[in-house]
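> Could you send the HEAT repeat domain-containing protein prediction when you get a chance?

Sure thing. Input:
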Amino acid sequence: MRIARRIRRFAGLLAVCAVAPLFAAQQQQTVCTVTVNSADEKQSFRRFLPQDKYRFVELVDRKRSDWLESACQAKVSCDVLIVSGHHGEGNVFFSDALDRGEHLDIKELERASCSGSCDSLFANLKEVYLFGCNTLNAQPFHSVSGEAVRSLVRDGKSPDEAARLARLLGQARGESSRDRMRLLFKDVPAIYGFSGVAPLGPVAGSVLDRHFRSSGAGHVGTGGVNGSLLRQFSQHGLVAVSGIGANDALMPLRQDICMFADDRMTTAKRLDSVHKLLQRPVAESRLLLDRMERFTDTLTADTRKQPEVAQALERIAADNGTRERYLSYARDADQFITRARMTEVAQDLTWLTPEQRREENTRMLADMIARKDIGAPDVDLACTLNKNGELHGAAAKLAVRGDVTQDVGRAAVLACLGHTEARERVLEGLVSASDAEVRIAQAYLRQRPITDPNELRVVTRAIAKMSAPEAQTRALDVLARHYVSDRESVDTLKQLFARTRSMAVQNAIAGVLIRADRSVRSPDLLRTLRENRLRASPGDNMVDALISRLQESS
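Output:
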């Protein structure tokens, strides 16, 4: 009996010893890091979090581009997520290092958040730390403008009721960075991010070190809002929110977003869902235009031939009521770019033939030319729409007034459509004293650059005669995007460098010459630069770079 009791006691001790490591492992939390820029924030967490309680997993794999998908397949489950990277316009986290291509697209986060194929990655998240600018900015991406109110009136609402509904729509569907992160990290108790400009990595790392030294690391992974951390970053605008819950007002928007992001849906089912979305008031469905664009771009010719996809497209094509409401909204859009984007989606959804789309765009360009003020974005759009030359015939239809090319904005739109006389007027605008005209010419030449060396020589001489330094600098910046390959143009710029009293102009000239054909640089160019250069800030001067380049080649 005594021996039996000893055996049972020994077996019990063995069981405790066997369970203890398992229990410790269960208590250990996984800290996932996405380091696409600075590693300072991650390193601070690593220094202060005990290794026996926190396990770090870097999700970025430099050897593969689909590293987030790889983490999903490996069934990684994060308790804490730390994202370090510059944050641009709510769409991507990226690095400022030119030799690093890693980035984290919000589309990938949406897919991971919405898809059943990646249900483990964020399922147990308690805290998210977003070290990037504007990650929790409350400013909406989409504004509900006058076009939405007019659309609701066309749908039968009174002007007052339409205005009220539009305001509510903006609140529910405007999609700020803060809303987007709350949608992505559903049910997460604590999401930290910045309402404005975030501190650089070394600064953020230093603040984190100070926080952990004074308050310890025991709060990490608990899911509670850390007031001490918020106070340490108070000067930098760190804020904390929670992910949306089942009854949150943003849940319908998440469902719509997940309809585009869930990789379990077939293309045909997604088309049916898009159709239902379009049957709502257009003022609402238009706010998801960017996602509709990304989806319709995937509808290749082979995809459209699939029986279920073809049938879904036929159902959309047959819905004339929704088609007319959609196109009426597009034609009435406040911004021409919105109108053009909606027109392209209409063709993708078989509501317009290619010829009908050209007619819609021609009508839009006529409306553009009829406006008093045409800006650089309008010119950029006109050139983009005609990048393949499909609207070349439209110039003759639109140039109905004899003085239409006297205005640089109208001339630039016509020049985008192949109008020769209009192009000459735009080149005159490049050397205008008006900054607005130079900007328009800049937008045009970005898409329709000068390729004729003689024309480039004439433009260079005209730029050299300009008297307004700011406009001249901008014109030189445009010239720098071209390849100067003749000695006369180089000599013209050299003479301008010697006589100008503007550091900005000298810097812009150097920007042109550093890209110019080396064989046409005059022998005395280096001496001219040294003798006539104006004082400038060290380390921020294109003249320094040009002098260094010339010295190396001499």
